[in-house]
């Protein structure tokens, strides 16, 4: 199957397929005599795996680790579960930070009349010094994970 067909059956753009090959998530495909890429059924499975993992928000490094475990039939499922639970905790921290940002925006909008006057409490609030939810999100993103 060529890259256009692979893209069609997986929903992953040809550009992203080439990107996944370039960063090593997808192995380089065989080439036909005409130079076109030739993907195997296993490539379809692997690309679907990558796309599903990306949809769940896993990072490229996490996907690489998961692919390594997927390829290793001797692996313990506990390793996979630890990665999944660690990622779920990261998502919970990010969700909390996003909710804090949403509430801050609603609070700023609450103080705004939304009329034709030029004074704007939202802009004034954005100019204030305050602890911002975005900082919490950044901290959550870089916080070391505990292995369960």
UniProtKB/TrEMBL annotation:
Keywords: Cytoplasm, DNA-binding, Transcription, Transcription regulation. Residues 1-69 form the HTH merR-type domain. GO terms for cellular component: cytoplasm. It is found in: Cytoplasm. One of its GO terms (molecular function) is DNA binding. Pfam families: MerR, MerR-DNA-bind. This is Cu(I)-responsive transcriptional regulator. PANTHER family: HEAVY METAL-DEPENDENT TRANSCRIPTIONAL REGULATOR HI_0293-RELATED, REDOX-CYCLING DRUG-SENSING TRANSCRIPTIONAL ACTIVATOR SOXR. GO terms for biological process: positive regulation of DNA-templated transcription.
